[in-house]
Design goal:
InterPro entries: DNA/RNA_pol_sf, RVT_2. By secondary structure, this protein is an alpha+beta fold. It has helices spanning 31-44, 73-82, 103-116, 176-188; strands spanning 5-10, 13-20, 23-28, 55-56, 59-63, 67-71, 121-125, 132-138, 150-157, 160-168.
């Protein structure tokens, strides 16, 4: 797997660079680091700068003096239109915890929930440390039929959840520590 997130720390400041196919976004706690990185990229490659980030890969980005807000209201509206859910009643909770999960009805319920919460997103206060932290866990041999473990993991950036996963592993671990190593590898790969 290619590395796509790069972090440079310099004298208490941080430069974060994210690459996706042929798109690059970057930001820093220090404007001079941003300017130096932009100059380096322009000197080495034929690139154009679009200025302050407002939209990237379906994410809307609103930058304030003390924080950044990331949301997907345009994407949610697009999905609601695509699946004919714009005129459906919204719901106050994303899932019904009293019933077992069902693939299609539960996805529709989640979008009905998002319809009623169009401005949900993540706030990133600019004064928080921008550390990347990951956690993983495994239920060693939890599947009774094939003894495969279920792995769970989550990743945080700057104290904010950015990714999570839960999956049945493709290999059978021979010990609980091996199951935890497999979980850590899945979580951090």
């Amino acid at each position: 797997m290619d590395q796509t997130l790069f972090i440079k720390r310099k004298k208490g400041d941080i430069l974060v660079v994210q690459i996706y196919v042929d798109d690059i976004i970057f930001g820093s706690t220090n404007k001079d680091l941003c300017k130096a990185f932009e100059k380096l990229m322009k000197d080495k490659f034929q690139v154009s700068s679009l200025g302050e980030l407002t939209f990237f890969l379906g994410l809307q980005v609103k930058q304030k003096k003390d924080r950044i807000f990331i949301s997907q209201d345009k994407y949610v509206a697009k999905i609601l239109r695509k699946f004919g859910l714009t005129n459906r009643k919204s719901t106050s909770t994303p899932i019904d915890i009293e019933k077992p999960l069902l693939k299609d009805p539960d996805v529709k319920r989640i979008f009905r929930y998002l319809k009623g919460k169009p401005h949900l997103g993540l706030w990133y206060p600019k004064d928080l440390p921008l550390d990347l932290v990951a956690y993983s866990d495994s239920d060693y041999a939890g599947a009774s039929l094939d003894r495969k473990s279920t792995t769970r993991g989550c990743q945080f950036f700057g104290c904010r959840l950015i990714s999570w996963q839960c999956k049945k592993e493709t290999v059978v671990a021979t010990s609980s520590i091996e199951a935890e190593y497999v979980a850590a590898t899945s979580c951090c790969a």
